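Per reviewer request, we include the raw input and output of the structure prediction for the construct analysed in the revised manuscript.
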Amino acid sequence: GGRLRNSIPVLWVLASGDTGKDIAEAQKMIAAQRHNIFKLKIGLCGVEEDVRHVLGIKKALGGSISVRVDVNQAWTELEAMRGIALLQEGGIDLIEQPVAAHNRNALKRLSDHFSVALMADEAVLGPQNAFELAAGHYADVFAVKINQAGGLRNAALVGPLAAPAGIGLYGGTMLEGAIGT
């Protein structure tokens, strides 16, 4: 029997793209005690510009607040080497899908090289694929999305496949309606 929870931590996405606005929005959420985990989508600007934006927010929010990034497959392996090194040094807690989903070997090399948690999102397509990624420890965390996994039953299988490999899980949505979420 697993432990039952009364609540789960939910992150807040900061998406204005403006460092000052994002800091103000996060500080408002923290003050209201609504969120202490924030995610930023990056990858549209250059590596250095994106990293500057993220670390500016992290610095302003402080050590007790978790900041994560989703690169959405935007970086080449070389860009990821540069970007992840800077983000890790700046105290970012998790980096989601830094390279293209099909480039699994790059994801594994990055995961082996860095101590910051790397998450596979678009690379996780269901139980069979999750099994292969877990067996080879291609990432530290798997995103679990019902639609992406091919339904609720498939999504539920990802966790038991990831657990023996020490891979964490991160529930997400593909912006479904209330029931799907």
